[in-house]
Amino acid sequence: MSKESRLRASVNQKLTEMGERERLKELLRAKLTECGWKDQMKANCKAVIKEKGLEHVTVEDLVVDITPKGRALVPDSVKKELLHRIRAFLAQHAT
């Protein structure tokens, strides 16, 4: 396991243990709804289904098709806010 992987796992464990991970997920959900991201993703899903036909699309296909678009559509302001909150949490709970 690389140093980066161990660090990532350690951060994730600390966020989970202290309940911050769930709070961040709730914040992310709210921010994505607020900025219209969910509506954009819903429209992307409908477009893929319309293009391929309902009988020819699985959930897995849909996830593969829209995941890159979904990540690209997350506003930078939302990413920056989450990163800021994670850094602040880690600074406050550094061991």
TrEMBL record:
One of its GO terms (cellular component) is transcription export complex 2. The keyword Acetylation does not apply. It comes from the Eukaryota. Component of the nuclear pore complex (NPC)-associated TREX-2 complex (transcription and export complex 2). Component of the SAGA transcription coactivator-HAT complex. Within the SAGA complex, participates to a subcomplex of SAGA called the DUB module (deubiquitination module). Involved in mRNA export coupled transcription activation by association with both the TREX-2 and the SAGA complexes. The transcription regulatory histone acetylation (HAT) complex SAGA is a multiprotein complex that activates transcription by remodeling chromatin and mediating histone acetylation and deubiquitination. Within the SAGA complex, participates to a subcomplex that specifically deubiquitinates histones. The SAGA complex is recruited to specific gene promoters by activators, where it is required for transcription. Belongs to the ENY2 family. This is Transcription and mRNA export factor ENY2. It comes from Parambassis ranga.
